[in-house]
From TrEMBL:
It comes from the Bacteria. InterPro entries: AMP-bd_C, AMP-bd_C_sf, AMP-binding_CS, AMP-dep_synth/lig_dom, ANL_N_sf. This is Acyl-CoA synthetase. NCBIfam families: PRK08162.1. It comes from Paracoccus pacificus. The lineage of its organism: Bacteria, Pseudomonadati, Pseudomonadota, Alphaproteobacteria, Rhodobacterales. CDD domains: ttLC_FACS_AEE21_like. Belongs to the ATP-dependent AMP-binding enzyme family. PROSITE patterns: AMP_BINDING. PANTHER family: ACYL-ACTIVATING ENZYME (PTHR43859), BUTANOATE--COA LIGASE AAE1-RELATED (PTHR43859:SF4). Keywords: Fatty acid metabolism, Ligase, Lipid metabolism. Residues 6-385 form the AMP-dependent synthetase/ligase domain. Residues 435-509 form the AMP-binding enzyme C-terminal domain.
Length: 522
């Protein structure tokens, strides 16, 4: 289990480095384990136990890493919340997940303060997380993370969960309609997916991992637990920018990092003067197929790219484009083209198929016939919290239905071709087109609205809105974008607005496949 990874590493390598963070924070595994036990002890003394939820809204700081162990150490469930969300959505998550405590990074204090007010609850304990790497922010809690540390016992006697199928984390995914759905993950799946990274990615013991991937995103793809398993080094990073990333790669001898294709694109486009490291580095990317030219640029400067695929419901990456030695002899463009495929199962995923969604009959492995991607195995969620109908809908014949459309190549590697649910993946984050459309329909000049993904070199995809105005009404692109910005998280706002008649079938259904084609031509 993930907690046993931590205990073993702290016992075997107590003096080895565990955490590095700007502002002079350098801690060993022994020190980190003691801090985690103190937090777990303090939470337990405040009656946090099995079945409870503890939420956290924080950047990739040491306290976020510690929470991935301290909360489950009490038997409770960790709910790491997307820091990009608006106050209304955070309020829904806090209430739906029944969080008893929310820990808050000062950078996000203002939004969380509004969210807590919207919950209408006076029993929600707010804990401020002081962080010297961030200037500003206000205290909104009744106590601080340091106060909890002071309350706790570094020798806290904790136990592993009695059942490995107990929940370890709760992660919310927007899906395509309605409120966010709470994905419940268990200790067994978290442990197996964490270990799969070590084997499939070839991570050696004491690997030095840079946190360019948000830890709130599928629990950082299970990498907090992976780092504990191989006694690695957790190199924290608050802001994902080229200069600090290259500086940390060079100075901290970072060996591995992860991120959406947008991160790779940013690094590949950075000034050459920043690219002054001289050791081998590996990057794992997912969220949208990385452009082949970005893969080529990354590998040209000594960064080996591994493409993976998964969903929140599968603990993050559950397939991997496993590399074969015979492909080394291919040209750079050919290698990049192979790497954009989503690949095969990782070691934790038991089954993967592309099939007819109605019959579950696998499609021919011809690289052309479309079908829906299905998965099954230990790294598939328990289900959606308090949503049995959505849980039943997502499982068919013992398989989890991804909602993504793809093909199966003759060599057994899958490749996504479209997204059945019209999800837009921008900068590695899922955006519901229905949610954006709902906001657009609130504008008094909008009669019909449809949102699709527009390819974008920087973000992978961005929302593109097609709008049919009411007769006699008028609106500008800037006005529509400003209207949306006032009502939703900034990353969900359409970057492009196209005015005109929206194509529909004779029954009035919007023909999004036409709009996707138009968006690609823009």
């Amino acid at each position: 289990m993930p907690l046993s990874f931590l205990r073993r590493t702290a016992q075997v390598f107590p003096d080895y480095p565990a955490v590095v963070h700007d502002g002079g924070v350098r801690r060993t595994w022994g020190e980190t384990y003691a801090r985690i036990r103190r937090i777990a002890s303090a939470l337990s003394r405040r009656s946090i136990a099995r079945g409870d939820t503890v939420a956290i809204v924080a950047a990739n700081i040491p306290e976020m890493f510690e929470a991935h162990f301290a909360v489950p150490m009490t038997g409770a469930v960790l709910n790491a919340i997307n820091t990009r969300l608006d106050a209304e959505t955070i309020a829904f998550i806090l209430n739906h997940g029944e969080a008893r405590i929310v820990m808050v990074d000062p950078e996000f204090a203002e939004t969380v303060q509004r969210a807590v007010a919207m919950t209408g609850r006076d029993d929600l304990l707010v804990v401020d997380i002081p962080d010297p790497s961030f200037e500003g922010g206000t205290r909104i809690g009744t106590l601080s993370y340091d106060d909890l540390l002071a309350e706790g016992d570094p020798e806290f006697a904790w136990d592993l969960p009695a059942d490995e199928w107990d929940a370890i984390s709760l992660n919310y995914t927007s899906g395509t309609t309605g409120d966010p759905k709470g994905v419940v993950c268990h200790h067994r799946g978290a442990a197996l997916n964490a270990l799969a990274h070590l084997v499939n990615w070839g991570m050696p013991q004491h690997a030095r991992y840079l946190w360019t991937l948000p830890m709130f995103h599928c629990n950082g793809w299970c990498f907090p637990w992976t780092i504990a398993a191989n006694a690695g080094v957790c190199v924290c990073l608050r802001a994902v920018r080229a200069e600090p990333i290259y500086r940390l790669i060079r100075d901290e001898k970072v060996t591995h990092f992860s991120g959406a294709p947008i991160v790779l694109n940013m690094l590949a486009s950075a000034p050459d003067a920043l690219k002054d490291f001289d050791h081998k580095v590996k990057v794992m990317t997912a969220g949208a197929p990385p452009p082949a030219k970005v893969i080529e640029a990354m590998e040209a400067m000594g960064v080996e790219v591994t493409h993976v695929y998964g969903l929140t419901e599968t603990y993050g990456p559950s397939t991997i484009c496993e590399w074969k030695q015979e492909w080394d002899a291919k040209s750079a463009p050919e290698r990049a083209r192979l790497k954009v495929r989503q690949g095969v199962t990782n070691l934790a995923l038991e089954g993967l198929m592309v099939a007819n969604p109605d019959t579950l009959e696998p499609v021919p492995a011809d690289g052309a016939t479309l079908g829906e991607i299905f998965m099954r195995g230990n790294n598939v969620m328990k289900g959606y919290l308090k949503n049995p109908s959505a849980t039943r809908k997502s499982f068919r014949g013992g398989w989890f239905a991804s909602g993504d459309l793809g093909v199966m190549h003759p060599d057994g590697y899958i490749e996504i071709k479209d997204r059945a649910k019209d999800i837009i993946i921008s900068g590695g984050e899922n955006i519901s087109s229905v949610e954006v459309e709902d906001v657009l329909y609130r504008h008094p000049a909008v009669m019909v609205a449809a949102v699709v993904a527009r390819p974008d070199e920087k973000w992978g995809e961005t929302p593109c809105a097609f709008i049919e105005l009411r007769p006699g009404a008028s609106a500008t692109e800037a006005e529509i974008i400003g209207f949306c910005r006032d009502q939703m998280a900034a990353f969900k706002v359409p970057k492009t607005v196209v005015f005109g008649e929206v194509p529909k079938t004779t029954t009035g259904k919007i023909q999004k496949f036409i709009l996707r084609g138009q968006a690609k031509e823009l």
